[in-house]
Amino acid sequence: MKPITVQANPTLSKDGLKALPLPELEKKLATSSDGLTQAEAQKRLAQYGPNEIEEKKTNPFLKFLSYFWGPIPWMIEAAVILSAIDRHWPDFAIILVLLLANAVVGFWEERQAGNAIAALKANLAVKARVKRDGRWATPAARDLVPGDVIRLRLGDIVPADARLLEGDPVEVDQSALTGESLPAKRKSGEAVFSGSILRRGETEALVYATGANTYFGKTAQLVQEAQTVSHFQKAVLKIGNYLIVLAVALVVVIIAVALFRGDPILTTLQFALVLTVAAIPVAMPTVLSVTMVSTAACWLRKRRL
Fold first, then answer.
1. Measured on CA atoms in the order 246, 248, 250, 256, is the torsion positive or negative?
2. φ/ψ of residue 173, rounded to 5
3. Where are the domains of the chain?
4. Facing residues of 130 across strands?
5. More confident of the two residues 294 and 256
6. What's the CATH fold of domain 14-53+124-222?
7. How far is it, in rounded angstroms, from Cα 254 to Cα 238?
8. What strands lie across the sheet with 197-200, from one edge to the other?
């Protein structure tokens, strides 16, 4: 087969490739049922990138420090400083422990959520049967490119989004992607998605999307970018912010009255410390995080049952 460069069409989306008739799809991808040459596959690999999900790496230390930044942590830190100035060491120790607990629990909770990407990647194929130069080979699944012809057998994990070529209908388990409890029947010309599992039959398929452009890749990208704050979290944080504003206002009033009356600064700090500790929700972030983690764990156990 003579190597051909794919002619990009910005008006044709991946959804368009999923619905395009097979002869037109082969023409659009500049391929055929004989697959690609190794040289052409290498060119496309450089053009499209590897067939894998990229993870966003963050510095764990900086991420941990971020939990000491914000309105509630600031007020807790202010209480810690006032306790140290006033030499109330029991209060100092208790509030400091709560401050650290808030950071540790929040960091651990987000770290567990971050492991969702690793869990998703564990469901992807490692190897693939690909026709290159007219012969079947088993390269790493990350080396697949649009235009490759792959072979799918019973129990195989589909390594990329592909369209089924001529052959008998097959059944595909897409529960990891769609939540469907039963395998879905797919016939020639229909799409199968990366991460799904072939439960019945054997067939060949034409790859039309790889890596982040696959249905699976887009799902993983949404997981990484999700920054959803629930209504419950918003309500609790709103209460916390209201208490913080109230505490700051009262501390300002106490200091103003103390200065006007000429009270000793140490006595004023003691009153400010008592008010700060009493008013701010010192343990609220920890309680909120633990409650949400426990609820999620219970939900997962029920799902497994």
1. negative
2. -90, 110
3. 14-53+124-222, 60-120+228-304
4. 137, 150
5. 256
6. 2.70.150
7. 24
8. 184-186, 170-173, 197-200
